[in-house]
Every structure is written in structure tokens, then in C-alpha cells.
Amino acid sequence: MTDRPHTPALIPAAQVAAALAVGSIAVLMVGLQPIVLGELVEARRVSLEGVGIVAMAEIVMLGLGVVLGDALLPIARLRAVALLAALAAAGLDGLTLQVQGDGLLAAVRAAAGLAEGVLVWVATGVVVRTASPARVGGIFFVLQTLAQALVGALLAHAVIPHRGWAGSFVALALLALLAGALAALLPARLAPLPPAAATGLRWSARTLQPLGVAFLQLAALGAFWAYLEPLGKAAGFDARGAQTLVAAALAMQVAGGSLATVAVRRLPALPAVLGCSAALAGVTVFIHQLPPGSTRSFALACAVFGFVWLFMLPFHIGLALRTDSTGRLAGLVPAAQLLGSAFGPLTASFIVQGDNAAAVPLLSASFAGAAALLALAVHAPPAVQRRTSGHPPSKSTT
User: Which of 115, 190, 222, 276 would disulfide-bridge 89, Cβ 3.0–4.6 Å?
Assistant: First the structure.
């Protein structure tokens, strides 16, 4: 996302704030999945093997909702679209209370993800039309995580202890209705963005490598995150302790994201991405070998995990810009991140055995290692690239 000097008009701060609130509510479930899905497993509404499928379905459809909103929905009817999407999300949160089983829950949560994705499209449509979209987008990203951390703590300490797993979906439905109410504060209409100019970008395996790095690192994150609560319980936490751990990890994400907004201008992308892959692999391998009862070590490792999560995301953009300076490839990084965060839980669901998710950290470590290898391939020395591509080295003058 870059600043656009051709922004047609300034959007009032109140309307921007409403859009950021709507978007933050829309992505709450992405951060709350370990708490909410863990409670569904505990209540036998979904199997541990099916958690990854349910998590993947909602995240993938959330991404699809953004894409379909951009392609099909009228930007001139922003308030109506936001209201209808919020009502649909609230209704599907309520419907979740009535269904059980891996297949039915996956279908209902996928439909909820589609509605949530439309709300994200509404928020993004406002962000990219502000006078400084890059700055507003950064604020949006941190606000999302703060909202997830606060709601996660609320669910763990106030809602679930008194209302059980059903209370979490009632709370999500009420928040979706709040998003519907905020629709009245959104801009009545938004001007269409100018058409994208041709960039000359040629798609190839090398061009797609930065997207692969983002995909694999988010797969590492998504696999571990979806099973954090059962892993925490196996380490010795009770249900409330495991839920609090999720909220604390979200708070560490805010710290990592805040530092990244400064570090991304000072650190080269490749060393940062490699360091983050090493940290993710080290943390997940460390967690795998912890004996039961090592709650303090588990909590510290999760804190590092959460910090690295948001810290590394801006550097995916840096990798993409090194390959394609036009920025077109960088615009596809969020899609790769979203698909990776869905692929990780899906893959993890195939290696979970009954109530045992002990192998999941090793899967995350494998994804992180693969991301590091691919990142090195992206930035192989130019001479190596020329030899492997069959082109002779070009002459240069100084």
C-alpha cells in the first residue's frame, strides 16, 4: 500500500475510524480461533482432527470475500453492503450455536468468513482512499491485533467461565451487530480508484518465490496457532490459562508489529526474514521437546512466537519489492499470507491423532525451514542467477 497523491478527496477522520472499527471486528475470529475452536473441541462439537479444516475454511472464505467484494460489489453503496454483511455475520455466528460436527461447522464458519471478508473489503476501500493509505493501513493492522487481544482476554476471563463455548459466539454476534451499527458512520459512497497501469511484470517461478516465502511462513504460524490451546493444556495449563496465553501472545504481536514499523526502514529484508524463520523454527522445536509441566518455558516461547509473527510481516513486502520494484507483486503478498495461514491448520489436521497435537510444532518448524531456503533462493547472487538462467554476464561501465 502506497501513498496516493491523486486521492480525490479527504475522508473525515470519523469515517476512517468507523471503517477501521468495522474491519477490526471482521477479523476478530482469525485471532480468536485457538480460544473458540479449543472450546468447541472440549465440548465435543468438533473433533481435534477437524479443527484445522474449520479454521482453514473460515480464513480462506474471508480472503475470497475480499476478492469478490472488489470484483462484484458496488462501492457506491458502501453503507448498505456493510450493514448486510454485518447482519449475515451475526446470523451465522448465531447459527454456529445450533450445529455440530466437522462438516457442518466448517460450512457455517466458511459462510461467516465470506461475510467477514466483505466487511474487510469495506474497510480496505476506505483505507486506500485516505490521504496517507500506508500510514492508515499500519494503524489498521495494529488495531486488529489489539482488538483480538482484548476480546480474547474478555472471552477467557468473563464470557467462557460463565457462559461456556456458546457465550463466545454470542459475543461475536453482538460485535458483528456493532459493526452493522457503525455502517451508518461510513462514507455514503467512495469514488472508484484509477485503473492500474501496465507494469510489464512477467510471471515466472522466480517471480512467485517471494509469495512462496510469505505463504510458508504463515503456514508455520497458522499450524501452531490453530492448535495452541491443546498444546498449552498438554504443557500443563488449565483451560483458562491456555486461553489467557492466547491473549498474551496477541499482545506480543502488537509489540512486534510496532517495532517492525520502525525496523522495516533500517533492516534489509532478507536477513530479517531469515532471522524470523530461524526464530520460528527454534521456538516450535523448543516447545516440542518440553516435558509436561513446563508452563513457564511454554509461555515464554509463545511470547517470542507472537512477537515474531507481526514483526516479520512487513518484510514480506520488502522481498517482493526486491523482485518487482513496480509494487504489483507486493500487492499480492496479503493474499499469499492469508492462504498460508489457512494451509497450515489444514496440513496440521492430517497429523493430529485423536487428542494428541504433539507433532504440530515440528510441522511448523518444517514450514519455517522451507521458507528460509526459499528466501535464500529469491536473493541468490546475480552471477549465480545468470549462470542458472543460461544468460551470459552483461558488461557494465562505471
Answer: 115
Q: For residue 58, which of 26, 22, 13, 100 has the smallest C-alpha distance?
A: 26
Shortest CA distance to 229 belongs to which of 212, 213, 217, 244?
244
Query: Residue 95 has which C-alpha cell?
Result: 447459527
Q: Which helix (H) or strand (E) holds 188?
A: none
- Report the interhelical angle of 205-226 vs 360-378 (nearest 10°): 160
d(C-alpha 306, C-alpha 313), whole Å: 12
User: What is the pTM (predicted TM-score) of this model?
Assistant: 0.72
Burial class (CB in 10 A: 0-12, 13-18, 19+), 120: buried
Q: Are 360 and 227 in contact (CB under 8 A)?
A: yes
CA pair distance 294, 300, nearest whole angstrom = 10
* Higher pLDDT, residue 197 or 20: 20
Q: What is the 3-state secondary structure (H, E, C) of 137-166?
A: HHHHHHHHHHHHHHHHHHHHHHHHHHHHHH
Q: What is the mean pLDDT of residues 244-250?
A: 80
Give residue 237's identity as a one-letter amino acid code.
F
For residue 353, which phi and psi values (nearest 5 degrees)?
Answer: -115, 110
State the average pLDDT over residues 281-303: 93
- Within 13 A of 5's CA, how many CA atoms are on the CB side? 0
Q: 369 near 244, Cβ under 8 Å?
A: no
What CA–CA distance (Å, rounded) separates 74 from 121?
Answer: 11
In the predicted structure, residue 1 carries a pLDDT above the cut 60: no
Element (H, E) at 359: none
Residue tagged 476471563 (cell numbers) = 157
Contacts of 38 (CB under 8 A, 6+ apart): 228, 229, 230, 239, 242, 243
Query: Which has more confidence, 329 or 280?
Result: 280
Q: Please state the φ and ψ torsions of residue 311, each to the nearest 5 degrees.
A: -65, -40
What would the DSSP string read from start to end of 256-308?
HHHHHHHHTTTS-HHHHHHHHHHHHHHHHHHHHTPPTT-HHHHHHHHHHHHHH
Distance between CA atoms of residues 139 and 35, nearest Å: 25
Highest mean pLDDT among 136-150, 155-169, 174-188, 193-207: 174-188
